[in-house]
Amino acid sequence: MLTASIDQPARAELVDEVARLLRDAMALYESDAETYALLAAHSRRLVEPLRVALAGMVKAGKSTLLNAIIGEEIAPTDTGECTRVVTWYRYAVSPRVMLFTLDGEKRRLPIVRVDKRLQFDMGELSADQVDRIEVFWPAPALRTLTLIDTPGIASLSTDVSDRSTRFLTPGDDPSEADAIVYLMRHMHASDLRFLEAFHDSSAGGSATINALAVLSRADEVGAGRIDSLLSAREIADRYRHDDTIRSLSLGVVPMAGLLAQTARTLRQSEFRALVSLAELDRADRELLLISADRFCRPNDSIGVDAQTRVNLMRRFGLFGVRLALVMLRSGVSDADELAQALARRSGLDELMQLISVQFEARSALLRARSAIAVLDEVLHHHDRSGTDELKASVERVMANAHDFQELRLLATLRTEPVALTPQQVEEAERLLGGEGVDDRSRLGLHDDFPEADSRSAALEHLQRWRALQHNPASDRALTTVCSTVVRTCEALVAHAPGAARPQRARLVLAAEPRPGSG
Ligand SMILES: Nc1nc2c(ncn2[C@@H]2O[C@H](COP(=O)(O)OP(=O)(O)OP(=O)(O)O)[C@@H](O)[C@H]2O)c(=O)[nH]1
Ligand SMILES: [Mg+2]
After folding, report:
1. Which atom of ligand 1 is nearest to the CA of 64?
2. Contact 366/7 with Cβ under 8 angstroms?
3. Ligand 1 atom with the shortest distance to the CA of 83
4. Could you list which residues have their CB under 5 Å from ion ligand 2?
5. Is residue 485 located within the same domain as residue 433?
6. Same domain, residue pair 208 and 324
7. Which helix H or strand E contains 245, and what residues bound it?
8. Ligand 1: lining residues by beta carbon, under 6 Å
9. Atom of ligand 1 lying closest to residue 152 CA
10. What is the pLDDT of residues 345-367, one digit of tens each?
11. Is the pTM of this model over 0.70?
12. pLDDT tens string 150-159
């Protein structure tokens, strides 16, 4: 599938522009060490991997999902003190664990693994004294994503949940995370309150486009029945169409995180034990799978000892064991094939696809947006000679960068009523990159749609949206929406094969804003 995108040149230019503004500001604040360090950190952040935070209520399955994404069981999932600390997982060639205290002290922690998981020995420190732990780990998944595990938010306010909430929704300061994956087992009032706080935080109206909701522990929805994920998908679909959730997140994905973690770390010994169980008589097998309790009971006639079965239950859950046995009986023949099939069924592939389409593809833009928000704050709070000029440049970038306008409009379409039919809203969202920012996703073209015809498809959209823009019946809000969509369509037409000037899709900085345009 082709992934050409109108965004690449424009985005690179926008990031360069933001980097230049940060450099200018650093020169201006050279004598103010604190502000200089803040700006320097954001300059570095522009070229770092995207930061995705995993958040949600206590025991929603955050650390388990993080392990599934990394493909190693390293994040602690017990109830120890360290699950109460914000923990960063970053790529590095060799493993290292650093702890930062609230007093600004930094220490290196020994790497201790118990049953393959990392254990952080914080010594005499309690979680309340620790600002964060940073784990540097040579996992390929971390090359493009920095993951941030946050302590569970309790339904009643506690110190721990306050800290997670403060980390993710730090009031006037921009969030340290570029995007958030929010796990919830059911849609609880506290989940909505948190998502609303994140939405209203510094990330502002665009937060909708950097939050994804996960209906977690989906295998438990149907009490471990083999069709549990289907029931979970129906619930997720309902949530997805709920106006409140739609205004707070890009989508809702059902996810069996424990199964995903196990699939990504499947051991040969587990595969062999599952094969033995799959070979049992049907009656014995069905009896064994009635409940987790029955599965773990000592029973000499089974051929797989009780301790091994207890371990399988802990790693797979009842749903995972049932699913694995069905797969083995229907022809899956080796551990790799089983791992892949389980990962697909767990929802992990779908989630990673969404993270890649929705967050990674926008990652530079999200980071540029974070940086420019910081710059704006700094300039408004630390006035000095030369700030006015920079302020004007920042405002110009914010108002004119078409990428930012697309993000804002995507959020607006999900949060505010506009005079469009539901089909038009859907089409506008798709054109703006709501289902993926590559040109084919924006145009809604199937894989087998001829590349040569994509220009006529783009032209057709352009004509339709232009007509709506100039329709005397369109009010001002609608005209503003249309003008952004039209600009996107123009870029798609210009970028399509056979266009007269295919390479330069559009300029990042337009001329001065037109009166009345938003
Ligand atoms: N059945 C099932 N259990 C799960 C799933 N995900 C996590 N668990 C279990 O739920 C418990 C909590 O999982 P964690 O990943 O530690 O949850 P968390 O959200 O990080 O918890 P805190 O950090 O303490 O808030 C563990 O016992 C996991 O094995 C899942 O998808 N299915
Ligand atoms: Mg945890």
Report:
1. 15
2. no
3. 23
4. 62-63, 83
5. yes
6. no
7. helix 243-248
8. 56, 58-64, 77, 83, 151-152, 217, 219-220, 256-258, 317
9. 25
10. 999 988 888 887 777 767 777 77
11. yes
12. 888 775 556 6
